[in-house]
Amino acid sequence: MIYAVVFAAALAISLLLTPLARRAAVWLGAVDMPHDRKVHEHPTPTLGGMAIFLAVILALLVAKVLVSFSDTLARPLGMVDALSSAQLLGIILASTFIAVLGALDDMRHLSPWMKLAGQVMGALIMVSFGVEITTIALPRGNVIDLTASPVLSIFLTVAWMVAFTNIINLIDGLDGLAAGISFITVAAFFFYGTRVGADPNTLQAMVISAAVGGACLGFLRYNFNPASIFMGDSGAQFLGFVLGAVSIQGILKRTAVATMFTPIIILAVPIADTGLAILRRARKGKPFHHADKEHIHHRLLYIGHSQRQAVLVIYLWTALLTGIALSLEFVGSKTVVLALLGAGVAAFLATTMPRIVMGSRELEEEEEEEELEEEEEAGREHGDSF
Question: Which of 67, 122, 356, 365 could form a disulfide with 98 if both were Cys (CB 3.0 to 4.6 A apart)?
């Protein structure tokens, strides 16, 4: 019952606040203008992430009030402690810092290094409240206890949080893409929690997942193509950061071997896209933050998909990978898991690799045409100078 209330509250608040965020963005001048490296063709207000952020925080406040003052509300045993813990406070404070950092970037365009420093600071705020990776599960039942190595624990936690924050930020290139992927991910995290028990960390992760899911679904009402508002860095960084925190609290604090890989498999599409972007830019001698139009969603557009179709295809891939990740955790038969994993990987490769190769070829042809046009224009200007 408590999860349904939180989800509904976040959904309603997001539906209510997103139009207000759109007006505020226009008033503050936080409008994303069309650019040759962007897909949208019209000026679009950003700062929609602040509506998502406020919806999540207010929904958690609703949960806190109901659990504290209502004896009739059905709630899992331990929910009072989960919503009163210092760790939840740490997640809220740190994610607030990240959302504000993202909003400043939407309005003032912070440097990449300043954003990275802010993300590290946000992760350290969270760690100071006890939210950190404390164990690493290895094959054959071996577990590395990081409580004796606090520096390593902090380093891994910060790296994990920064990675999650940026994979959602980098995948946010088409209308509704980041919000939809985040919704699928928190739905998986919530389902995961229903299967592993009711310890305070898991309950905490589940109630946050319910709030984020409702906020994302409400925001998609305005953000799905054609979008009337973008979430901007305020939303993409906030969602990535919260997903990282939920994965630590709800999954990584267990000692099963598959736990470390579950969130990685679920988010394999944005993780792969981010990794390929870093390698691609390094190969070209460009900084990691250099924007381009070679992401997976761009390649789907190059081969003829509409924005909506490209987004739905990536939703499908994410849902497929989510099913594989959860099956690895909860299906007892190794034969079934391996068969499902093999079928999933085969289907994923069959539907992506030919399309990505075709998209790459079209992109190269497009870049060659652009370079030729630039050379011709430079030649004309040179001729005019005489």
Answer: 122
